[in-house]
Each structure stands twice: as structure tokens, then as C-alpha cells.
Amino acid sequence: MLEDGRSFRGRAYGAQGTALGEAVFATGMTGYQETITDPSYARQLVVQTAPHIGNTGVNGDDAESRRIWVAGYIVRDAARRPSSWRSERTLDEQLAEQGVVGISGVDTRAVTRHLRERGAMKAGIFSGADAERPDSELLAAVQAQQGMEGARLAEEVSVDDAYVIDPADHGWQGEPLGTVAAIDLGIKSMTPVRLAERGVRTHVLPAATTFEDLRALDPDGVFMSNGPGDPATADVQVNLLREVLDARIPFFGICFGNQILGRALGFGTYKLRYGHRGINQPVLDRRTGKVEITSQNHGFAVDAPLDGPVTAPETRYGRVEVSHVSLNDDVVEGLACLDIPAFSVQYHPEAAAGPHDSAYLFDRFVDLMAASKTKESL
Fold first, then answer.
1. Would you call 169 helix, strand, or coil by DSSP?
2. Kind and range of the H or E element at 361?
């Protein structure tokens, strides 16, 4: 049931009951397990545009976090049985086990076209006894829930306790090249692994980490992850990042971290009509002229001028330019600071799931930290 009264009927899938959230669509043909375990999908009902879902089951290795985060799951043709040597259970079983209410047998193409025309909106999935209530009651429940604008969710999905990902555990030989403090706003497990593969020891820290906490680690760089919710609510993280930028500690942010950098520099953010979600989003790297096919999951964007460089509204940070732009709708997909060591992108370069076009960004971060160390030693 969508908040404008449009409804779709199907079969119960996963747990039975009620799921409320924002209805959004994801266009990935593969990677459904990574999708449902991406914390950026917290409080969202995900419509998979790919028609066949569950074909390869689920396993303990491909999850991108400690649990399923989607509030509800909407698919067309659910696999009757998985077919993969890596499968440990069916997707249906895992959804039910974790209490995630889903629906199958839905015309997901029609749902997607509706959301593309009218934008992401509040919605609900109702099954079992809950589905027998009058449509008017279901619609009232959908409309009464909180929207995504103004939602502060990063603290809900972040870890409670810090942990470390060490390079030696991911094929790196020799001493680590440096240490990164990664603020977990909804981090995917593959992200610190990509840093570890490049010789960087990563301390993953809770969303409420303070600058004093960071200073105690004496990191060579600071990273802010992807995550759910409205960046306008992230004042704690924005203030933390300003302290990082003031201290000239190298910074790299992705997705929510890109929006926080934008806010720290003084730019605004806004909600997209239906967002970018999937593993096939084309982005232009304006510095090289190359096109990357990227993995994305965001409903908000940075409001920064595409014609640059410009002086940041927070003038103490100097010049900034939009480094990457979406080829679908000209949305800002990256920021590069020219006078301080900081940059960010709006997408997910860890490629879990997705193409590996953007792996160079982790190398760029390692190079930025190395250059900063060299400058300090001079």
C-alpha cells in the first residue's frame, strides 16, 4: 500500500505481519544479499527491479553487515529453491528468521514506474491477519508514519563498540602503511577490507565518536561511510568533520560521508525525487574524462555548483570543485577540496555488490595520506 492510495497484491514472503517504510527501487540484476544487508536501506521497503530474486540463496560470507536492514522486501518472482554451491539457506528463510516482512508475486515494473513518476513515498507491506484489515486502515497506518526527511538513523545502524580490520588478515605483507579512523554511519563490511588490502589498518568507530577519540588514535586519515537518513540531521558528524578539516587530517567520505563533507564546507543538501539505487549508475570523473559504472544507494544529494572551482561557503576551507557528476541527472557525485586534503564521492566504491570501476578511489586516499605525511616531515 502506497501513501497515495495505490495498492498491489501478492503473496506473503519472509516474515508475516506489517512493515512500514519508504518505498524505493533498486536496479541491480545481482547482489540482492548485499542489498538487503546494506545499512543505508534502514527504514526502507526495497523493490527489486530484477524479476528473479533468491536464485543463489544466501550465505554467511556475502552479508555486508551484521543483519538485514531493509524494513521490507518486494519482489516479483521469488526462487522456489536456490541453486548455488555457496548457498546455506533460502532468502525466504533468512527474511523470516530476522522478522523482515516481504511480498512476492507483485508487478514490480508497475511499482517502479509509479515511483519514478511520483517519487519515493511512504508505504507498507501487510500480510497474514494484518492484510485482512480494511484498506482504509492500512492507508492510514502508511500515512501516519514518519517520512525520511528529518530522519536521524546513522546512530541506529552504527556499531556500539570499535573494532579493527588489520591488513595482515587480508593478504598484506609487511608493516601497515598507515592507520585510518573510519566513522561507521552504516558502513559495509567490504569497505575497511578494501583499505586493508592496500596496507591500511582501519579502526571502525561508532557514529558518536568525538574528535578527542580520534586524536587518541593519531590516525593518518579519517573516513566517513555510507549510511541512512537525512544528512540535515547529522550535525554531530558535521561538527566532527570540521574539526578534522581544521586539523588538516586527510579525509575521504563516501555516500553519507559525501553529504557530510558538503555540509561541513557550507553547502546544503536536498532530497532526490526517487534517488539512485543499484549497481549500474553512470558517473563522469570530470578530472580524467572517464565514465565509471558505479554502485549507489542514496536518496539525498549535495547542493553545490557544478561550475567550479568555487570558494567554499565556509571560506576557511578554500576552494572546492565538483569532481564527479551523474550522467543520468547531473546530480553531484563527488567533491574535491583544492586547498585542504579532503575529497568524497556519492557512490560505493567498495563494489559489494557492483563493478570495480571505482577502486582507484581507495588508492587515491592512500596517496593523499602518504603525501600529507611527506609534507609534515619536511
1. helix
2. helix 360-377
Mean pLDDT for the stretch of residues 178-202: 97
E strand spans, 170-240: 178-183, 200-205, 221-224
Residue 377 has pLDDT above 70, yes or no: no
In sequence order, the β-bridge partners of residue 101 are: 14, 72
Q: How confident is the model at residue 374 (pLDDT cuts 50, 70, 90)?
A: confident
Residue 52 appears among annotated catalytic residues: no
Considering 203, 298, 324, 348, which one is annotated as catalytic?
Answer: 348
| Cα torsion angle, 120, 48, 225, 94, sign | positive
3-state SS class at 82: coil
Check pLDDT > 60 for residue 378: no
3-state secondary structure of 320: strand
For Cα atoms 107, 113, 118, give the angle at the middle one, nearest 5 degrees: 125
- The residue with cell 511499482 is 111
Predicted pLDDT of residue 308: 83
Catalytic residue among 3, 203, 255, 333: 255
How far apart are alpha carbons 223 and 275 in whole angstroms?
23
Angstrom distance (rounded) from CA 359 to CA 351? 8
Annotation says 348 is catalytic: yes
Grade residue 114 by pLDDT with cuts at 50, 70 and 90: very high
Residues 181, 179: Cα–Cα separation, whole Å: 7
Q: How far apart are CA 372 and CA 190, in angstroms?
A: 25
Task: Write out pLDDT tens, residues 29-81.
Answer: 999 999 999 999 999 999 999 999 999 999 999 999 999 999 999 999 999 99
Q: Is there a catalytic annotation at residue 333?
A: no
Tens of pLDDT, residues 4-25: 999 999 999 999 999 999 999 9
Strands (E), the chain: 11-14, 18-26, 44-48, 52-53, 72-74, 77-78, 101-104, 121-126, 163-165, 178-183, 200-205, 221-224, 251-254, 268-285, 290-303, 310-311, 319-326, 332-337, 342-345
Reduce the DSSP state of residue 196 to 3 states and report it.
helix
